[in-house]
Amino acid sequence: MEKQISKKSNMREEKQEFATIIRILQTDIPGHKQLLVGFTYIKGVSWTISNATCKILKLDPTRKIAELSEDEISKITEFLTNPGDKFPTFIVNRRKDFDTGEDSHIIGTSLDMKKEFDIRRLKKIRSYRGLRHAFGHPTRGQRTRSHFRAKGKKKAVGVKKKKK
Questions:
Q1: Among 55-59, 106-110, 117-121, 143-147, which is the least confidently predicted range?
Q2: Residue 4: is it exposed, middle or buried by C-beta count within 10 angstroms (0-12/13-18/19+)?
Q3: DSSP 3-state assignment of 25?
Q4: Residue 162 DSSP symbol
Q5: CA dihedral over 110, 113, 119, 123, signed as positive or negative
Q6: What's 69's DSSP letter?
Q7: 51-87: buried (b, 16+ CB within 10 Å) or exposed (e) per residue?
Q8: What is the reported pTM?
Q9: What pLDDT is stored for residue 142 in this prediction?
Q10: Domains defined along the chain, listed by start
Q11: Res 124: pLDDT
């Protein structure tokens, strides 16, 4: 009986250790998550990028986030903010940038800013996609006969009944 109680108390202590929150690139990541899952909490980091980061930096993807040292966290932060040519072209999220023409991977709030500037540029040059964004319609060729009616304010769409 005492062994079972001691095992439970040890498990509780371990859970309390991993209950900490680790902050990487302005993102709070629960300490009990594995590296592979925890990296995906960062905006702009997908499963593919997370897996590639673990392999390039030679980190165990099943390791817990809370087990990382400050040195490792700084190494991860440095790598994710400036990966260079380490990622293959098909993984990065910004291929053939409009301004520079280079392939790059953008993470965090700069990803939102780049996306917003791209949409603003499309609206300014009055391209088809820009006009679709301006009117609030889908931009990737979806059909609009029966969907996309209540974008923004909830508009009542229906069939009027005949008056008797």
A1: 143-147
A2: exposed
A3: coil
A4: P
A5: negative
A6: -
A7: bbbbeeeebeeeebbbebeeeeeeebeeebeebeeeb
A8: 0.69
A9: 85
A10: 2-81 (1.10.8.50), 108-141 (no CATH)
A11: 94
